[in-house]
């Protein structure tokens, strides 16, 4: 219920200020489970990705969003609850398995599950290598995967910027559902998981027009931080 209250309040406000656009809404099923697999350019994706859809989109978010203290922690929990985020532990190992089970539960309940295969926001607006959790979800749940490509949200609100820029119209393109039924029963095969994930990322690259980088975004962030430190030390 709170999700729809937040959407009813924010929706008209966001439309008025930013005039967002959307393409391919007809590719998202009107009912039944599906995975929305998207690129992740900006914090603004949480708003503008689900905004055009008449259905609720449930996403998986790191548990830290829900454990903060004080006023900031309260409003952070309120926001992520309002945009349909379910907390998960992303520390790896058994925690990764728990995240998978949470995603499968959401899909068994007939919901739309929105996930970002890159695992974190792009540090520079390019599209990075996807993690294979999205493939395991797709093969174990046996539901369609809809590529979900955000456009211009990086330019509007890049990482580190607290407020969006005006004058940039964010957009979202929903691609045609991807069918991976030929791989059902092979979710333990790492080569299959990589092939499925790469197919999803290729579809996102085509929809978004982003340059693809064959490395994980988290690794790229570490490299950029090291380069920035070196530049500071040498100046």
From TrEMBL:
Entry annotated with the keyword Membrane: no
UniProt-listed SMART domains: PlsC (SM00563)
InterPro entries: Plipid/glycerol_acylTrfase (IPR002123)
UniProt keyword terms in alphabetical order: Acyltransferase, Transferase
GO BP term, pick one: phosphatidic acid biosynthetic process
Keyword Manganese appears in the UniProt entry: no
GO molecular function: 1-acylglycerol-3-phosphate O-acyltransferase activity
GO cellular component: plasma membrane
Ranges where the Phospholipid/glycerol acyltransferase domain occurs: 34-153
This enzyme's EC code(s): 2.3.1.51
Protein name in UniProt: 1-acyl-sn-glycerol-3-phosphate acyltransferase
């Amino acid at each position: 219920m709170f999700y729809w209250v937040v959407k009813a309040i924010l929706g008209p406000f966001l439309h008025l200020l930013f005039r967002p656009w959307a393409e391919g809404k007809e590719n998202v099923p009107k009912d039944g489970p599906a995975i929305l697999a998207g690129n992740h350019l900006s914090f603004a994706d949480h708003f503008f990705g689900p905004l055009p859809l008449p259905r609720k989109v449930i996403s998986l978010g790191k548990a830290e969003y829900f454990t903060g203290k004080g006023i900031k922690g309260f409003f952070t929990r309120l926001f992520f609850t309002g945009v349909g985020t379910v907390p998960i532990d992303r520390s790896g190992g058994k925690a990764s398995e728990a995240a998978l089970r949470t995603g499968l539960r959401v899909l068994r309940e007939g919901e739309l599950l929105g996930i970002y295969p890159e695992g974190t926001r792009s540090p520079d607006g390019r599209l990075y290598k996807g993690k294979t959790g999205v493939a395991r979800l797709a093969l174990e749940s046996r539901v369609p995967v809809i590529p979900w490509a955000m456009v211009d949200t990086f330019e509007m609100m890049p990482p580190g910027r607290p407020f969006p820029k005006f004058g940039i119209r964010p957009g979202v393109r929903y691609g045609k559902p991807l069918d991976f039924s030929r791989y059902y029963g092979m979710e333990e095969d790492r080569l299959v998981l990589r092939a499925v994930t790469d197919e999803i990322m290729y579809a996102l690259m085509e929809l978004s027009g982003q340059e693809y980088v064959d490395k994980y975004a988290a690794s790229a962030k570490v490299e950029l931080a090291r380069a920035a430190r070196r530049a500071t030390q040498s100046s």
